[in-house]
């Protein structure tokens, strides 16, 4: 049984975290498996959308605390181990945003600490009713500093800080209101609702989505003038694509586009 299962269908890659007995914790093995798939997807033109889900009763419960405790047995008290662990987790989270394909989190049960970070690091998220989100490390004396990076870039600052400093959970509808997830659906509809969005995105011109996703994150780090200058150049490049020319012509002629990609 693989800790991370992959299934590709209709240009959608499904990555299914498969460690239900550990609530799909981001163990060393899970992080390695996710990193391997991220590196593979970087150069896979057959995939246009990625969906991440979890087996069992939870999406992801964050880092594997048993492994972290074992790491303390080193002579340095675990300092090198912890740095490597958090560096590898960061590589996975940033790798998801650097993928050319949009990534959708399909969330149920709980998404806590680094699991909540995983949701926030995906480009979109669909949650089942009843899902709970938290960056609750403070409850055990560990402030969720790295999850804070992704969370504070998804929801308003004061609400992010409240979650971080109190360790309290929010429900799916509150997460939707704050902008952490795009949509909340009945649990029985979660897979279908996620698939609907994935297939809609997959139907678009892949080259346009790729250049657009990259520009989306680049401009977010810029000042207003630089952002407009950068995205203007991106649109110029996009306009010169053969398939974009065909898409505009098809729209004007009221016919489906004949895209090469």
Automatic annotation (TrEMBL):
Source domain of life: Bacteria
UniProt keyword annotations, A-Z: Fatty acid metabolism, Lipid metabolism, Transit peptide
Family annotation (InterPro entries): ClpP/crotonase-like_dom_sf, Enoyl-CoA_hydra/iso, Enoyl-CoA_hydra_C, Mitochondrial_ECH-domain
UniProt family annotation: Belongs to the enoyl-CoA hydratase/isomerase family.
Role played: May play a role in fatty acid biosynthesis and insulin sensitivity.
Protein name: Enoyl-CoA hydratase domain-containing protein 3, mitochondrial
Upper classification of the organism: Bacteria, Pseudomonadati, Pseudomonadota, Alphaproteobacteria, Rhodobacterales
């Amino acid at each position: 049984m693989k800790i991370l299962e992959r299934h590709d269908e209709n240009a959608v890659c499904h990555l299914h975290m498969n460690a239900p007995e550990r609530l799909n914790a981001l163990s060393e093995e899970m992080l390695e498996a996710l990193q391997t798939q991220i590196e593979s997807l970087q150069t896979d033109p057959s995939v246009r959308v990625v969906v991440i889900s979890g087996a069992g009763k939870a999406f992801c419960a964050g880092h594997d605390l048993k492994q972290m405790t074992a790491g303390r047995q080193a002579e340095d008290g675990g300092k090198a181990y912890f740095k490597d662990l958090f560096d590898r987790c960061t590589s996975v989270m940033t790798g998801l945003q650097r993928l050319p394909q949009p990534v959708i989190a399909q969330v149920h049960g709980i998404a806590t600490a680094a699991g909540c970070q995983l949701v926030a690091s995906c480009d979109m998220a669909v949650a089942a009713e009843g899902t709970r989100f938290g960056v609750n490390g403070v409850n055990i004396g560990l402030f969720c500093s790295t999850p804070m990076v992704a969370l504070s870039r998804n929801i308003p600052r004061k609400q992010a800080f409240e979650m971080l400093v109190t360790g309290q959970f929010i429900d799916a509808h509150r997460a939707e209101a704050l902008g952490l997830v795009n949509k909340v659906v009945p649990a029985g509809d979660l897979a279908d609702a996620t698939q609907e969005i994935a297939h809609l995105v997959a139907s678009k011109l892949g080259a346009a989505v790729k250049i657009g996703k990259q520009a989306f994150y680049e401009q977010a780090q810029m000042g207003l003038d630089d952002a407009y200058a950068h995205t203007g150049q991106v649109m110029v490049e996009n306009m010169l694509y053969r398939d974009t020319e065909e898409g505009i012509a098809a729209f004007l002629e009221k016919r489906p586009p004949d895209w090469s990609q």
